[in-house]
Amino acid sequence: xxxxxxxxxxxxxLVETVASGQLEIVDPLAPDRRVGKVYIYPGAAGWEISGYYxxxxxxxxxxxxxxxxxxxxxxxxxxxxQDPALVERGSNDPLLDxxx
Length: 100
What we know:
Structural class: alpha+beta
Distance between the termini: 35 Å
Helix content: 25-40%
Radius of gyration: 13 Å
Number of helices: 2
Order of helices and strands: HEEEEEHE
Strand content: 35-45%
């Protein structure tokens, strides 16, 4: 299914961008209404996928919204995270928007 492939790609991008290790992810393939609503939406220019991630059980859940083009390449990633290295990276990467 195409949506599954898109979400799998999203997971890979999220791990490459946010984590140096393992992430726990809530997304359209692994929803958890206790954490929050998630969605995948096909648009004219590609896909929008929302979800949440955390690094471990002591971490807060961080919401994200990712936009991919039709080739499933990252167009924009908006996240809420206070990790200083990630905030700095977001200030230098036009594809990454980090809200502390």
